[in-house]
Write a structure and sequence with these properties.
Low-confidence stretches: none
Bound molecules: coenzyme A
Largest sheet: 8 strands, mixed
CATH class of the domain at 20-158: Alpha Beta
Helix content: 25-40%
Radius of gyration: 16 Å
Strand content: 25-35%
């Protein structure tokens, strides 16, 4: 099951497949022109607690409204992904240099049943949307995912109503592969979802 990012309020589960080489390559994080993508830290908690309770955050996610306790537990499990010897998932805090604090999270997770595929999930504090931060972060996660792991394909599932997320995936090079009608129930409403994916670039 994919649960978006935060998909959230269950702890990150250890799995057999691993992003160990990604973890080694970017163990203290990685920089893009405007962002630092780094392991999350306890100091991020008050910021996440502030934005994750807004409806804009969880509207299209398969979850109840987050509670402060649930957010705390999630952050602990996201931090723990960086301490595992063979992590199946890595969660990065998105921190713009000129903001100086977390504005969102992005994760990559190896599929449970197929170590040639990984999924991504992401969100931004609604105060920091519309600046291209998520595009910059997602492009970098896709780049390091292909560069430092054996995955051949990276995918994401999105509620069809989540036009911002669809646009983001398309800007980052994902193609819409299929529509999955009635794929998931979100707080009691049956919803249709798209599957997006991007393949490992061919070497030249
Ligand atoms: C999905 C989500 C991260 C997208 O956020 P976003 O702000 O639209 O994405 P970006 O940060 O890439 O910003 C893109 C916007 O900034 C604009 N922009 C400004 N400067 C830009 C730049 N340098 N590069 C790219 N875009 C830029 C783009 O034109 C675009 O604006 P538009 O939506 O008016 O066309 C956000 O909607 C979110 O957190 N939603 C809630 C959680 C969620 O649903 N997650 C996905 C679950 S599948």
């Amino acid at each position: 099951m994919n649960r978006g990012l935060f998909g959230f309020l269950g702890p990150v589960q250890p799995r057999s497949h691993s992003l160990r080489d990604v973890q080694r390559a970017v163990k203290d994080g990685v920089s893009t022109p405007r962002l630092r993508l780094r392991p999350p830290a306890l100091a991020d908690l008050p910021h996440i607690r502030r934005y994750a309770v807004r409806e804009a955050f969880y509207r299209y996610m398969d979850m109840e409204k987050p509670t402060p306790e649930g957010i705390g537990k999630y952050l602990e499990s996201a931090m723990a992904t960086w301490r595992r010897r063979r992590p199946a998932e890595l969660v990065f805090a998105i921190e713009p240099g000129d903001v100086g604090r977390i504005v969102g999270l992005i994760r990559i997770r190896i599929d449970e049943d197929d170590d040639r595929a990984a999924s991504v999930g992401f969100h931004l504090d609604s105060d920091f949307q519309g600046r291209g931060y998520a595009t910059e972060a997602l492009r970098e996660i896709v780049r390091i995912g292909f560069a430092h792991s054996g995955v051949a394909r990276i995918w994401a599932e999105v509620d069809t109503r989540n036009t911002q997320s669809c646009a983001l995936l398309e800007r980052a090079g994902f193609r819409r592969e299929k529509r999955m009608d009635g794929h998931r129930s979100i707080r009691g409403t049956v919803t249709d979802w798209y599957l997006y994916a991007v393949d490992r670039p061919r070497s030249r």
